[in-house]
Amino acid sequence: MLNKRKIINDPVYGFISIASDLLYDLVDHPYFQRLRRIRQLGLADIVYPGALHTRFHHALGAMHLMSQALRTLQEKGHMIWEPESEGAQAAILLHDLGHGPFSHVLESVVLPGVPHEAITLVMMKDLNRQLNGRLDIAIQMFEGKYPRKFYHQMISSQLDMDRMDYLNRDSFYTGVIEGSIGADRLIKMLDISHDQLVVEEKGLLSIENFLHARRLMYWQVYLHKTLLSAQAMLTQILHRARELAAAGERLFATPDFARFLYNRFTLADFDNEPDLLAAFNGLDDNDVWASVKGWKTHPDPVLSTLCQMLLDRNLFKISFFNEPPGEEVLAPLRERLTARGISETDMKYFLITGETTNWAYAKEQDPIRVKMKKGNLLDIADASDIPTIEALTKIVRKYYVCWAKNVSLRG
Predict the structure, then answer these.
(1) Which of 84-88, 276-280, 406-410 has the lowest mean pLDDT?
(2) pTM of the full predicted structure?
(3) Within 13 A of 309's CA, how many CA atoms are on the CB side?
(4) Cβ count within 10 A of residue 403
(5) Taking every pair of C-alpha atoms in the chain, what is the biggest distance, in angstroms?
(6) DSSP structure class, residue 393
(7) Which of 97, 258, 284, 322 is 20 to 30 A off residue 22, Cα-Cα?
(8) How far apart are CA 202 and CA 189, in angstroms?
């Protein structure tokens, strides 16, 4: 009989245990194995060459943290039944199944209007059918429908195992040490009060460090201006490809990728077309890179130019602004691009405006509760005597302009 209790050596945490047959079957399934081929940070290796880790790494790490957190809660006297423990670990293990190529970057292009969480749920339900209902509890926890609400908080909240792992892991692989959060201590401070996930008062500094680390990682990694520029270029490549596909142009693409390029699917289509989920599961970063490499010689000058520029790391210039940039900024850039041979029709591909936000702590939407020594619960911003915690509740919004500085249209 196959031994399904496996140990995996993880560079961030050391040994990770796959603690049940169900968890092994999930890790072994093609839906989960696809995550090996999707980078956790998309194009971030353009800035941080070590950022080559995958969604597969991250999901295993989040499952490991979940097992540690559940053990901590049991040690504090809370009843965690074995089916609940397995369900919570399964839910966090599968929480990223619905990510497409390059994670968040192409979500708005490949499947516009269909969030990855919705596809994750479709895939979890399909897995549940294949496994004869063994994921019933995991799906309830993922959707927030399980009676004990704190499980959903551990899967999706401002203090969930997902965030704890990606901050630790992304910090490790990028080398941005400011993002390191000391997840072990944070987890030891977790507790449950009134069916809510809370943090003991003595964990206050750990939470403050966690929120500051998240803010710094957003500015230094996730919203790094060079990364934003590369993401904007890749997004424009896909927009152009879809525009050409809609006009009937033949484009090189793998069969699964071609299906999504030439069609616009909605969430309902996953129910109506039984093989669509298999096609989605055939998509990963390799499909997109293969196409970008193939399209660099496409007759369309916009598509081929953008692809060649991205492959050569000849990235768009980018500038940030505190207010939406007006014509005093955009008009000179348009003139410069026109002089380089960019037509008015094609200008949208070489001059891009956008905005980005950094919200380290969404106090109103999803508060982090601190259990004080007297037993009362306070919001972290009220429990902390550090004024910057309150400052982290403010949304910081920045606007940007990307433009092709050294463009020369091919063809």
Answers:
(1) 406-410
(2) 0.94
(3) 28
(4) 22
(5) 73
(6) T
(7) 284
(8) 7
